[in-house]
Amino acid sequence: MSGRSKKDKRSLEIAKKIAKNLIAHRLWYSHTQTDLGKAMGVTFQQYQKLEKCTNRAYAEHLVRICEQFDWSIHTIFSDPDKVLNAWMRKEYPESMRASVRPNKFYAIKKKWNKLDEDAEKNYFRKESHAWNF
After folding, report:
1. Cβ proximity of 82 and 99 under 8 Å
2. What DSSP line would sit under 80-109, residue for residue?
3. Domain 9-124 carries which CATH code?
4. Cβ contacts of residue 33 below 8 Å, gap of 6+?
5. Which has the minimum average pLDDT: 6-20, 31-45, 90-104, 109-123?
6. What is the DSSP string of 9-43?
7. Alpha carbons 97 and 131: distance in angstroms, whole number
8. Higher confidence at residue 88 or residue 7?
């Protein structure tokens, strides 16, 4: 029997949380998917699949990337919205009062929305057939 857990809704939510935090870290700190893939010891394509919830991350990959970039491993498993808001309060305190955010904030939110739309299909590898007859 495989040591990997079954893909279910709970596992999907965990994968989405990890993916959102990886996206946030990548965009906030201006890294590329190639940079993060190299830090994890995987190819750009393998890393990209983590952000899309097509593949699941191994613990050792997450530890490696956090060590490489000096990120807290706890942050990767934290609520992504709380992480992003904490960064905003720290680096852009004036924007918390005025509803103007830096471009990277909107770029992160846009990627997260796309992930929310596609994650279930990617995670369970469901085919999407948008045929109009």
Report:
1. no
2. HHHHHHHHHHHH-HHHHHSS---HHHHHHH
3. 1.10.260.40
4. 26, 44, 47, 48, 51
5. 90-104
6. HHHHHHHHHHHHHHHHHHHHTT--HHHHHHHHTS-
7. 46
8. 88
Q: Please list, in sequence order, all residues whose beta carbon lies within 8 angstroms of the beta carbon of residue 63, skipping any fewer than 6 positions away.
A: 73
**Token representation of residue 63:** 């530890």
| DSSP character at residue 50 | H
Token digits of residue 87: 């960064």
Instruction: Give the tokens for residue 33.
Output: 């998917």
Q: How far is CA 133 from CA 127, 128, 129, 130, in A?
A: 18, 15, 12, 10
In the predicted structure, residue 124 carries a pLDDT above the cut 50: yes
